[in-house]
Amino acid sequence: MNEVAQTALAAHGSDMSLLGLFWQAGFIVKLVMIGLLAASVWTWTIIFDKLARYAAFRRQLNNFENNFWSGQSLEELYQTLSDRKTSGMGALFVAAMREWKKSFEKGARSPIGLQQRIEKAMDVTLAREMDGLESRLGFLATVGSAAPFVGLFGTVVGIMTSFQAIAASEQTSLAVVAPGIAEALLATAIGLVAAIPAVVAYNKLTADAGKLGMRLEAFADEFSAILSRQIDERSSQAR
């Protein structure tokens, strides 16, 4: 009788609780379960962190919009935001205003070139903001798609171990088969426990990030139009 079969046979009359099944499982199945549990813990960490960050990001967007449309001059708002680290619409605003001021300080004469540089500065900032919003969402997608298969791998290994025990003992009673099958199915269950929240959270957080991104894009387009009008006014006055 080989060692694998002996391990499975030792499960006769053993503890059938979840913890007991874990401790009785073979090395490979244990490794699969531990990996899936670690992935599940990290998944929930990302979920709670993203929910908190997105909520704070929304509040920040609302506060900035209130300040931006309050009638405060662009120069005053820029002076307020330029001295501190900003994100979201504030980052877009600072990037555009910084390019605006640099261009006029250097005596830029091409309105079209200035407009393009401002739009480019906001595009780069927008891409950076979206990278921050979508960071670590790929891990959720990976767990959601891979965890069931990893759990299934543990289940297959566990069932193979059970069959080896049956062949070695030459018995087909439920007492021989049940412990090994239960251990094997536990791996699949943990895989689903890790995958289901990851898939649901990925879909929700991706949608939330998309909505926040749309708000940023809308502000970038609107602010670009405002600056474009001011550029045209200055060009007319210069003539």
Automatic annotation (TrEMBL):
The keyword Transport does not apply. It comes from the Bacteria. It is found in: Cell inner membrane; Cell membrane. The chain crosses the membrane at residues 21-48, 137-160, 180-202. It is a multi-pass membrane protein. Pfam families: MotA_ExbB (PF01618). Residues 113-216 form the MotA/TolQ/ExbB proton channel domain. Keywords: Cell cycle, Cell division, Cell inner membrane, Cell membrane, Membrane, Transmembrane, Transmembrane helix. InterPro entries: ExbB/TolQ_transport, MotA_ExbB_proton_chnl, Tol-Pal_TolQ. The keyword Isomerase does not apply. PANTHER family: PROTEIN TOLQ, TOL-PAL SYSTEM PROTEIN TOLQ. Belongs to the ExbB/TolQ family. Part of the Tol-Pal system, which plays a role in outer membrane invagination during cell division and is important for maintaining outer membrane integrity. The Tol-Pal system is composed of five core proteins: the inner membrane proteins TolA, TolQ and TolR, the periplasmic protein TolB and the outer membrane protein Pal. They form a network linking the inner and outer membranes and the peptidoglycan layer. This is Tol-Pal system protein TolQ. It comes from Aureimonas populi.
